[in-house]
From TrEMBL:
Domain Threonine synthase N-terminal: from-to ranges: 5-85
Top-level taxon: Eukaryota
Gene3D superfamilies hit by this protein: 3.40.50.1100, Threonine synthase, N-terminal domain
SUPFAM superfamilies to which the protein is assigned, alphabetical: Tryptophan synthase beta subunit-like PLP-dependent enzymes
UniProt protein name: Threonine synthase like 1
InterPro entries: Thr_synth_N, Thr_synth_N_sf, TrpB-like_PALP_sf
Gene Ontology cellular-component annotations: cytoplasm
Organism from which the protein derives: Sinocyclocheilus grahami (Dianchi golden-line fish)
Length: 344
């Protein structure tokens, strides 16, 4: 239970523990880590019990089901989570749920130190590793740049790069694939590189918590009774965030539809509509909410864990900057007909 495998391996492969994949970041075969089995599903009575708790305690109760206690002890996990969400957020609720109108609610994810939803995951990662942040110099707002570069204490540093986000992502993956570089760092500096972006399972797992927490707030204020469905809309088009909602659904949260709203960086919606994933002659456009996406976990999810298919598709993408999923009609039909998710 609670073991993880690469998106590019078969379901029969040996799994790894959470602490191993946090350090590795990217799997040795170039894939991303996903649960070997589906997420543990909690009973309605357990969700009702958790709904009465404050956010940090909710996070501990949920994450305890996803991380093996022989890997990270419950005491250690509780200490790290309470340190991450104790004093770092401006709102006592951490992620308050606000009523908009009629049956619409908004989950506020901007109360952390950088006013970004990423704080919900990145506040926990420094409890495990040192953090060095690469960001595109001209790809973020001025206030976001000041937030990241203004805090240079402890084990967290930020560095700007004179290129776009895709370059940062490609460069990190290239570094992880360079065995001589990794060996040099290990021997000379006793350093092991990991990645803190949505490649890393430890970045995505805390996001599952706030999707669950939103539903529990609706239970606690008696807006819903357990079993009433909700739809989740991700307005940033961030696909790691979208996958987190699908994982929350696997855990038993009654999510009916996940709506992933892209902006002009709409390669995911183009892919699902056409079956073509084409990065050739396509540049990431600067925007207030860049829709950079972790698609590989979703392909693994909808293909039923077909590691060979995922490996072939993404090796083609890395080599040719293109793949055509419509050649596999089963996969493309699943992408088009999946009733869990809407992308536009």
């Amino acid at each position: 239970e609670n073991m993880l495998i690469s998106t590019r391996s078969q379901m029969s492969s040996d799994g790894k523990f959470f602490s191993d994949v946090v350090i590795e970041g990217l799997a040795p075969d170039g894939g991303l880590y996903v649960p070997k089995k589906v997420f543990p599903k909690l009973e309605p009575t357990e969700w009702l019990r958790i709904s009465s708790m404050p956010y940090a305690m909710r996070a501990v109760a949920i994450l305890e089901n996803c991380i093996h206690p022989m890997d990270v002890s419950p005491v250690e996990l509780s200490t790290m989570v309470h340190r991450a969400y104790g004093q770092n957020f401006a709102n006592q609720s951490v992620v308050p749920l606000k009523h908009l109108t009629d049956h619409q609610y908004i989950l506020e994810l901007f109360h952390g130190p950088t006013a970004s939803f990423k704080d919900l995951a990145l506040q926990s990662m420094p409890q495990l590793t040192g953090v060095l942040v690469f960001f595109p110099e001209k790809g973020v707002s001025e206030i976001h740049k000041l937030q990241m570069t203004g805090f240079q204490e402890g084990n967290a540093k930020s560095i700007s790069v004179l290129s776009d986000f895709d370059f940062c992502q490609r460069s990190i993956k290239r570094m992880f694939g360079d065995s001589s570089l990794m060996g040099h760092l290990a021997v000379k500096y006793a350093m092991v590189l990991s990645t803190a972006n949505s490649i890393n399972w430890a970045r995505l797992l805390p996001q599952v918590v706030y999707h669950c927490s939103a539903y529990m707030d609706l239970l606690r204020n008696r807006t819903l009774t357990f079993g009433d469905p909700i739809d989740v809309c991700i307005p940033t088009g961030n696909f790691g965030n979208t996958m987190s909602a699908l994982y929350a659904k696997q855990m038993g949260i009654p999510i009916r539809k996940v709506i992933c709203a892209s902006n002009h960086n709409c390669i995911i919606s183009d892919f699902i509509a056409s079956g073509e994933y084409d990065l050739r002659n396509r540049k990431l456009l600067v925007s207030n909410s860049p829709a950079t996406d972790t698609l590989e976990r979703f392909i693994h999810h909808v293909s039923g864990g077909d590691g060979s298919l995922v490996r072939d598709l993404f090796l083609s993408l890395e080599r040719d900057h293109f793949f055509l999923s419509i050649r596999d009609f089963t996969l493309h039909n699943k992408l088009l007909l999946d009733d869990n998710i809407t992308i536009y």
